[in-house]
Structure formats: structure tokens, C-alpha cells
Write a structure and sequence with these properties.
Layout (H helix, E strand, L loop, with lengths): L29 H14 L1 H18 L7 H16 L20 H4 L3 H14 L3 H23 L1
Length: about 150
């Protein structure tokens, strides 16, 4: 049970963000950057499934009533498992995405078998990371937009 089920739960509060300015890099056209990223994300089936799964998990978390009869509970649990199966093996290696260590880091990584195993596991996970892949595309867009902006000046 969560606090919201108590008679007198505390109110939800938020901390106001502090305004800041990084002052190091000026993004040429942030509107185009956001639009391009948004278009890629909304067209990507994996991102759509991630969002669907997040909605499913939110509903599951917010659910506070469950069937008490054993048979109804089994059926409910079976439906939950079937829903969850849709999201298994969601992340597959991205063919167009190469992730590798820097050459300078290899001697340190290869000096120990446990480091090598941890690094291999880390690289395997990064090759499936759709958010990292999208960040890579955003950086490519930034470079392209900078080149366009430099050509206009």
C-alpha cells in the first residue's frame, strides 16, 4: 500500500527549477532540433512500445483493487502476464549503431578478465540503447544545423 491509501496523505510538492544558462554552446535552431527528434521518436516502434509499457505500468501501479476470488485472481494474473509478454525482448541490437571502447581504454579493460566481462556486457547493453541512439542522432542534427547556420553568416 502506498501513502495515498492513508487517511491523511501528504500533498505532492515540487521544487521549482533554478534558471541557468550553460553559456558554452549556442544551438542554431532548437525548434528544428526538437521537431526532428520528435518525428524520429514518434515514428520508432520501439519508442512507441516503451511508452505503451510505461502507461501499462502506471495503471498497474495505480491499481488498488484486486480480485479476491482465487479463480478470478488467477485469470487477472494471467492477463497481466500476457500483457507483459508483449514487452519482452523489446530491445534488440541496433544494426546501424556501432559502440566500441576508445583505444586508450583497451589496455586497462583487457588487464583483467572480470573487467573484460563487465565491459562486454556494458557494450552489449549500449548497442541496444535506443535513447543513446537518439542522442547520437540529435548530435548529428546539431552538427548539420551548425553547418547550415555557418553557411548563412
Amino acid at each position: 500500500l502506498g501513502e495515498r491509501e492513508n487517511d491523511y496523505p501528504l500533498e505532492s510538492t515540487t521544487i521549482e527549477p533554478v534558471p541557468y544558462n550553460q553559456g558554452v554552446y549556442h544551438i542554431a535552431d532548437i525548434g528544428k532540433l526538437k521537431a526532428a527528434s520528435g518525428a524520429r521518436v514518434s515514428a520508432d516502434q520501439v519508442f512507441q512500445k516503451v511508452n505503451d509499457n510505461a502507461v501499462r505500468l502506471r495503471k498497474k501501479k495505480d491499481q488498488s483493487q484486486f480480485p479476491l476470488q482465487a479463480e478470478k485472481y488467477r485469470q487477472w494474473n494471467k492477463r497481466q502476464d500476457e500483457e507483459a509478454k508483449q514487452f519482452e525482448n523489446l530491445f534488440q541490437p541496433i544494426e546501424a549503431f556501432q559502440v566500441e571502447n576508445l583505444a586508450a581504454d583497451l589496455p586497462q579493460i583487457q588487464s583483467d578478465t572480470s573487467r573484460t566481462a563487465r565491459n562486454d556486457s556494458w557494450l552489449k547493453d549500449k548497442k541496444k540503447d535506443i535513447q543513446l541512439y537518439e542522442a547520437f542522432h540529435v548530435m548529428q542534427d546539431m552538427i548539420r544545423l551548425d553547418a547550415i547556420a555557418a553557411g548563412r553568416q
